[in-house]
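2024-03-11 09:14:02 INFO queue: dequeued item PTN23 phosphatase, len=679
2024-03-11 09:14:02 INFO validating residues
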Amino acid sequence: MEAVPRMPMIWLDLKEAGEFAFNAAVKKSAVSVPRDFEGCSTLRKYLGQLHFLQSRIPMGGGQDAAVPVTWTEIFSGKAVTHEDIKYEQACVLYNLGALHSMLGAMDKRVSEECAAGAFTYLRDHFPHSYSVDMSHQILSLNINLMLGQAQECLLEKSMLDNRKSFLVARISAQVVDYYKEACRALENSETASLLGKIQKDWKKLVQMKIYYFAAVAHLHMGKQAEEQQKFGERVIYFQSALDKLNEAIKLAKGQPETVQEALRFTMDVIGGKYNSAKKDNDFIYHEAVPALDTLQSVKGAPLVKALPVNPTDPAVTGPDIFAKLVPMAAHEASSLYSEEKAKLLRDVMAKIEAKNEVLDQFMDSMQLDPETVDNLDMYNHIPPVLMEKCAALSVRPDTVRNLVHSMQVLSGVFTDVEASLKEIRDLLEEDEAQEQKLQELLGRVPPAPGSPPGLAEVSKECSKYLELHEKASFTNTELHRAMNLHLGNLRLLGGPLEQVRAALPTPTLSEDDKQVLQNLKRILAKVQEMRDQRMSLEQQLREMIQKDDITTSLVTTDRSEMKKLFEEQLKKYDQLKVYLEQNLAAQENVLKALTDANVKYAAVRKGLAEVEHKWNTTVQTLVGSYEAYEDLMKKSQEGKDFYTDLEGKVAKLLERARAACQASEAQRQQLLERWVGTH
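2024-03-11 09:14:37 INFO prediction written
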């Protein structure tokens, strides 16, 4: 796998700057940066100087020195203006992340962690209401995309360095986890509406990568099993890797050639591994192949992180060009208060993330999707793939008749050839019997020299044709068997749609079963409600922290009173924290109720799964019969052509056999007459 072609990566466009009443030369150098690491350095310096400026001059929203700042919103292309220097900072920070993403997508494949760091700082320290491309949902999506791509780069390096199989599997599993988070965001209706047309392209690529890197993870779990001589486990891991890769290939339709090349390369590796492992286990090791769900799941190893952004780092910003404008004490106190807010946010987020992790693991183990928990709607309709076949047969009403007629014609020619060959064989056997009788009669008297010409050649050709006929007979029998197998399905597909629908299995639920389903859906809705409320409260907390600026108060507060002021100001977050604590505490009861409901659902779920399996099997069988029609017609025609040609050859051979046998009989008569004359 170390030579696998690289997968493409997603990178973000940079925002375009508009009006900002700042020094023109400074502005130009900051918004027209080169697309390289020098450009990243320029953006960091400009960001730092803006921060220094904002801490000294009241240029924030609603402040005395605020001036219009205009930037173009990425997705709509509209110019968005705010009288707030923080908007300028936010847009520069966004471009820093976007530029790092662009550089990360290039051949060097570095910089994604820097991009994630820029977007994380932007999400956690700036308002999300400036423009839709800097909303909380979009920034969280960008962060997960960048972390996923950073982990993907680490995976590439790990495979090139031939790291241990188990470590590579965990790194790959973490790529999957990051992309799953990104996919959840992409599937969010609000996020999709914000992204517009690129949402489908991103979602398709990310979904394909989820299956692809899951396949890579199980490939390396299989390699680890191989190293541990667990040959049964090796087979199931390679089988799972093959299944997931096939899903990735299905989702890769329309992706560039680089993706197809990577998938083909990986298929060669995984397919070869699976075939070799299965063959070895079948013929050599004979180990039981365990079910995949009985093996320990691969836990991701997050070895990348969002690199922190420090806008006031002098190593990045250079000298503070506004150092003499305002007292630094107020700025320092504001920074301390910001750290108190950040600590509060970290403490709350640690609790939220711990609960979210438990919730995610629990829901993953349950494998319950509220949208498809009963999947009953699918049984109300004939699936499109089957409707397509029914429609195709409706405009070809003679399909079954043509197939039956073709096979009848083939059977007729087959029978004629078989009869002719039998007649030739009978003639030859009769001639041989007459010859033996003559020899018994003549005794020791030698027969007249010379034998009828052609009998040996006829016998030789007859044997050849019999051999051809015998081989073709097996093919003919298989063809008839296949036809009989598909004929009923083709008649069904060509008939009324009601009959097709009636042929598909449907579940039968009792009133108790329906009650179980309704209760399960209700609790799943509660889980989603709890998630949504938690996200909303977190969003409120973040926005409240971002808007919480007490600089004015700090300027008029004595240094000795700073701690007391901080404590008073932080009390404004107490109510939100109480709501969040209540939400987190409710999780245990909700999950207990869900566990109980799931236990009752188990029997219903098993029944629904069995019906769904039968339904899918029936659909696949009917589709398979339709797709087999053309092949049957082609093979039937090939059979007719073969036997028509053979019939002509056998007919000529029959004529020769008759003539040769007549000549042989005449010769025996002459010999008999001479023998009688001498005795």
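2024-03-11 09:14:37 INFO annotate: Residues 165-307 form a domain with the Serine Threonine Protein Phosphatase 5, Tetratricopeptide repeat fold (CATH 1.25.40.280).
2024-03-11 09:14:38 INFO item closed
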